[in-house]
Design goal:
973 residues, mainly alpha, globular
Length: 973
């Protein structure tokens, strides 16, 4: 809290602001400061309200030791000054007797006699106030369930009684009843009892998140895996990082451990690391730690005890180390509770959870399925081998010779040899062999650097590749190998050109590639005595540089120059029987045909090449060849043939490491083809596979872009929880969380997540994210248009939440950015929606504000018309007229509403395939206003009876039924 309140008005404002904060230390500290400030004012009512806020912060911030102390103060104030307590505050006071009972139960140091004394106090207070005792019996049952004794009679005494205004909400009581049946081993009955909560019909502050966490395992045991998966995604989102729901988080971790999702479990544990420090409730700690231990024991049993794990602050943890620590703490908690209760209930429950065997070998929980091997600190991006790793020679000389032979061929198996040599050379006791066949150590070090440069280029790190190639070239020169040095210098020059062009425009990039090409040509011409392999590589670099330039400019001159270099490469490679370079030249030649717009010739070229590669090799070029052919088939709009070709490419690519065939791109292309074929679910699978492969190869930007597309597609398909879970996982990646990812890409990921949260009806979380994004994007001076769109969406969500003052501020900033980079349709849509929401929520009182927003929308429409902008659907003026109709109808201004709707119908014109839905809705609303509110039944029926045959002729059944039902209602009335 920046400054302490100076009067009660400021105190109440600060209280209201604090209530908007999420539960946790920040809200609790602010509540403590407000309670301290309230003590200084001679206003008991203000003090009472701050104490209620403080108790709520302690309760939902998982600090049960402090909640009863605050309540004792409130109870004293009530006894001394009962008139200060309004009806609402009195209700709160008696309601929170249950909170104190829950808090005392969560503290093992609190004697059982004290718990029972408190329940006696609660009963006495309720009887004195003339309140029903069902809440008291509910607390008596919950104490029995906690200790594990006499649950059946206590349950009957509670469950058989009629609910009162002070009973727990329906959702909470449903959960308690379901847990009673679950403890009795009746999964089916528990699930039937839970149904209203699981279906979302009953909810509260803690529900359905609490019930969802308990229902997961019963759903698995009864075979409803799909529902268990869906409820895990929805339920986890409702409890993550929430100290008062640490036990629920623990049960989600347990669910992951028992369904083959151990890697996701560790990811969720890392996301909830704050719970190790912020949960002060021993009972919540016990539930959380037991779930954590179930997960860690499972990971350790699978041989991954050395993996890093998120645990208690102050040190780093491995899975094994954290598991031992958690086991000791949870055992101690169980012992303390059982000692207090005089039973073995907590130890028994803990043992039952820890001894539970996995219920499924594997259940795909999210779009981003990961294995424990993917989390290995030794190789965080290593992909599982696509095929059996080739054997490598045992002796160092043989290994070096073999690596160079394979490298000359461009064979992927060279990588295994280089990896083995890299490990040997790095060893402190490595001794380089005195063998003329392998050459000096500088040559080997240069070979290894060149291999690292190739890897850097594969992950698009051109600057790193250029530096590694340059270092390799210097070592080759030291080793007396000018030919290898020339190739390395040439590769460095081209990589430097690529790196320098990252921030350049197309013309600058093209100039840089021309300069890079000239450098390679010069090196080629000034390097006598080159071997055919070295000369082939130089020619390949020359051709690649000009093909990249032609791809940028598409000019005839540049295409011709690229084609000439490719022919030079092909002729040389054919003469010297360099199979890899021949194949590369054919692929480049097909690419130049495609760039020139001659896709049929490109396809003909590749048809012959596919047969040649199948028969003569190199076999590892087949996936790329099929993939390129698939892309060209898409270019000629043969999606079915493209699908077959790309599917075959993916199949044969599995025989080689992913980087060899660029398998990530193959999956990305397949996703595009699937969308053209109307197979979005399959497209989604290919997108997520493409992203994961890119991530494993170190192409993180490409990976996150693809994940963003996958999340958006998932959202478009209505798979809201999948979209949110995917984005949560991606945003938790260390470099993303640390702010190392491109800020615009990170913002796009967060924007998609905010939209998904809104679609998932989590308005509060969605609005908070939009507000943060709007504030950040305000500084994007180079992209005001994006800020305009984000601020406009933010304004709509604020209006949806009823916060029209902040909505006005946000839409004002959107309009200011729109003036610099117009976004006519988006701004018009937002302004109209804000107007509708204000009129709908505030009625006649909201009409002036709503009309002001529509006036802004009218100015936007005028600007669009002056600029010649064509909207995608109906005109902005027609949409505005319709909204005037709705807004005036909400405000009770029915004549104005009907006039506006008539204007909208004129703008829409006759109904057709494209506008029938909007036209029908406009007719329906006009009929409602005219026939019901203005009571002009005859003209309203004439309107409807004229419209119905028109919609019938268009086969618009749904719209026809809606108008027919309205007409029948008007006739009945």
């Amino acid at each position: 809290m920046p400054t302490a309140p100076q009067n009660t008005d400021e105190l109440y404002d600060a209280l209201q602001e604090n209530q908007r904060r999420p539960y946790g230390r920040a809200r609790t500290v602010a509540a403590e400061e407000l309670a301290e400030a309230a003590e200084r004012f001679e206003d008991t009512l203000a003090l009472v309200r701050t104490l209620f806020e403080l108790q709520e912060a302690y309760t939902y911030g998982s600090e049960p030791r402090k909640s009863p102390v605050v309540f004792a103060r409130l109870l004293t104030l009530f006894d001394e000054q009962p008139d200060v307590f309004t009806d609402r505050l009195r209700h709160l006071l008696f309601w929170r007797f249950k909170w104190v009972a829950n808090s005392l139960r969560a503290l093992p140091e609190m004697p059982l006699t004290s718990l029972r004394q408190w329940l006696t106090e609660m009963r006495g207070r309720y009887e004195k106030a003339g309140l029903g005792l069902q809440p008291y019996y509910a607390q008596t049952y919950q104490l029995a369930a906690h200790t594990g004794e006499d649950t059946a009679p206590a349950y009957e005494l509670w469950a058989a009684r009629t609910r009162t205004p002070f009973s727990d909400c329906e959702a909470c009581e449903i959960c308690e009843r379901a847990l009673y049946h679950l403890a009795a081993g009746d999964d089916a009955r528990a699930l039937r009892t839970w149904e209203p909560v699981l279906d979302g019909k009953e909810s509260c502050q803690e529900e359905p998140a609490r019930s969802l966490s308990y229902a997961l395992l019963p759903l698995l045991r009864t075979g409803d895996t799909d529902r268990a998966r869906a409820l895990h995604l929805a339920g986890y989102r409702g409890c993550r990082r929430n100290p008062s729901m640490a036990g629920e988080v623990g049960r989600h971790l347990e669910f992951c451990a028992l369904t083959g999702n151990e890697a996701r479990g560790l990811e969720l544990l890392a996301e909830n690391r704050v719970l190790f420090a912020e949960v002060d409730s021993p009972l919540d700690q016990f539930d959380f730690l037991t779930g954590v231990e179930v997960l860690l024991r499972r990971v350790e049993s699978l041989g991954h005890g050395e993996l890093p794990a998120a645990g208690y602050p102050g040190r780093t943890w491995t899975v094994a180390g954290l598991c031992a620590e958690v086991r000791e703490r949870a055992d101690d908690l169980a012992a303390r509770f059982d000692a207090r209760n005089g039973t073995t209930a907590h130890a028994d429950r803990r043992t039952a959870r820890l001894d539970r065997a996995p219920l499924l070998d594997a259940l795909e929980l999210t779009l981003r399925t990961r294995a424990l091997d993917d989390l290995s600190p030794a190789a965080p991006a290593a992909a599982p081998p696509a095929r059996k790793a080739p054997s490598v020679p045992e002796t160092v000389p043989e290994l070096i010779v073999r690596a160079r032979e394979l490298d000359e061929q461009g064979h992927p198996d060279a990588q295994h040899c280089w990896d083995r040599l890299r490990a040997l050379v790095a060893a402190p006791d490595y001794t380089h062999p005195e063998d003329p066949a392998v050459g000096p150590i500088d040559r080997l070090r240069a070979d290894l650097l060149s291999d690292e440069a190739v890897a850097a280029a594969h992950r698009d790190d051109d600057a790193d590749a250029a530096a590694l190639y340059a270092e390799a070239a210097a070592l080759y020169e030291t080793a007396g190998l000018p030919g290898d040095a020339a190739v390395a210098h040439a590769a460095a020059a081209l990589a430097r050109t690529e790196a320098d062009g990252e921030a350049a425009d197309a013309e600058e990039k093209a100039g840089g590639l021309a300069a890079g090409h000239a450098s390679v040509v010069r090196l080629h011409e000034e390097s006598p005595g080159l071997t055919p392999c070295q000369e082939g590589r130089l020619l390949r670099l020359r051709a690649s540089a000009l093909c990249l330039r032609a791809q940028l400019t598409r000019t005839e001159e540049h295409l011709a120059a690229a084609a000439a270099e490719v022919e030079r490469l092909h002729t040389f490679a054919t003469r010297h029987e360099l199979a890899g370079q021949i194949s590369g030249a054919v692929l480049l030649r097909a690419g130049t045909h495609a760039l020139a717009g001659d896709l049929p010739t490109a396809l003909t070229e590749l048809d012959a090449h596919v047969d040649r590669v199948r028969q003569q090799g190199p076999a590892w070029h087949l996936p790329r060849t099929l993939g390129l052919r698939g892309r060209f088939l898409m270019g000629v709009r043969d999606a079915q043939a493209a699908y077959a070709e790309l599917s075959e490419a993916v199949r044969v690519a599995a025989e080689w490491p992913a980087w060899v065939s660029d398998t990530a791109s193959l999956h990305g292309d397949l996703a595009e083809v699937c969308m053209h074929l109307g197979r979005p679910e399959e497209a989604l699978r290919h997108l997520t596979r493409s992203a994961e492969l890119n991530l494993r190869q170190g192409k993180r930007t490409d990976a996150f872009c693809t994940y963003s597309n996958a999340a958006q597609l998932s959202l478009d398909l209505g798979r809201v929880e999948d979209s949110i879970a995917l984005l949560d996982s991606v945003l938790a990646e260390p470099d993303v969380a640390a702010g190392e990812l491109d800020d615009r890409l990170a913002a796009q990921l967060r924007l998609t997540r905010a939209r998904a949260l809104h679609a998932g009806e989590d308005l509060k979380a969605a609005t908070a994210e939009f507000v943060a994004l709007a504030a950040e994007s305000a500084d994007w001076d180079d992209d005001p248009g994006s800020h305009a769109m984000i601020a406009a969406e933010t304004a709509v969500l604020l209006a949806e939440a009823g916060d029209f003052d902040r909505a006005d501020d946000a839409i004002g900033r959107a309009l200011a950015a729109h003036s610099r980079a117009p976004r006519y349709e988006q701004l018009s849509n937002a302004l109209r929606e804000i107007a509708r929401l204000q009129a709908e929520q505030q009625g006649a009182d909201g009409l002036p504000g709503a009309l002001a927003r529509l006036a802004d929308a009218e100015r936007v429409a005028e600007e669009a018309r002056a600029a010649g902008y064509e909207p995608r659907g109906r005109s902005l003026e027609t949409a505005l007229a319709y909204e005037h109709g709705r807004v005036n109808a909400y405000a009770g201004e029915y004549e104005d509403a009907l006039t506006a709707l008539e204007r909208a119908l004129d703008g829409l014109g006759e109904p057709g395939e494209e506008n029938a839905g909007e036209w029908a809705e406009c007719v329906r609303l006009a009929g409602v206003v005219e026939g019901i509110y203005l009571e002009r039944t005859t003209p309203a029926l004439t309107r409807l009876d004229t419209a119905i045959p028109r919609l019938t002729a268009l086969d618009r059944t749904e719209e026809t039924e809606s108008l027919t039902a309205l007409a029948a209602r008007l006739r009945d009335e």
